Amino acid sequence: VFVLVGPFNEHTLGEPGKAGYDRVKSEIEAWLQAHEIPHLAPPPLPAALYVDTSHPIAQGYALLAKQLLENTAFRSWLGAGPETSLPTQGPEPSAPNAAALPRTFRP
After folding, report:
1. Which residues share a beta bridge with 40?
2. What residues form DSSP beta bridges with 4?
3. What is the pTM of this model?
4. Which of 23, 61, 87, 104 is the most buried (most CB within 10 A)?
5. What is the DSSP letter of 50?
6. Can you tell me the distance from the alpha carbon of 17 to that of 21, in angstroms, rounded to the nearest whole number?
7. Is 63 exposed, middle or buried (0-12, 13-18, 19+ CB in 10 A)?
């Protein structure tokens, strides 16, 4: 098993919520580490790459996939060494222009 902790739109949290989330996320990471469970807890995506609190848009998923493919623990879990070239598809992910997003999805 490989655990991806997230994604979660931390940009939507106020200060008390952010502090509580950071504490829980740290505890999860510590538990996974202590039990030697391969995992990735990436930093939050840019706010414009989320539709809501936990669902990225296509560019957000592309960025998460890129981070996974660059992660040593994930590559090891896949059985791909650091020298193995993994397939990629499409252009480099980038943040969309907020004006181009539907009004309900604008940050």
Report:
1. 4
2. 40
3. 0.72
4. 61
5. B
6. 6
7. buried
Q: Read off the amino acid at residue 92.
A: E
Distance, first Cα to last Cα, the chain: 34
CA separation for the pair 10, 74 (Å, rounded): 23
Helices (H), the chain: 15-34, 58-70, 72-78
Contact between 11 and 51 under an 8 Å Cβ cutoff? The reply is no
Positions of E strands within the chain? 3-4, 39-40
pLDDT digits (tens, 9 = 90+) for 74-106: 999 988 766 666 555 555 555 555 555 544 444
CB contact at 8 A, 75 and 15: no
**For the chain, how big is the Rg over CA atoms in Å?**
16
Q: Which tokens hold the place of 83?
A: 């020298």
Greater confidence (71 vs 87) lies with 71
């999860």: which residue's tokens? Answer: 28
1 closest CA partner among 27, 42, 55, 40? 40
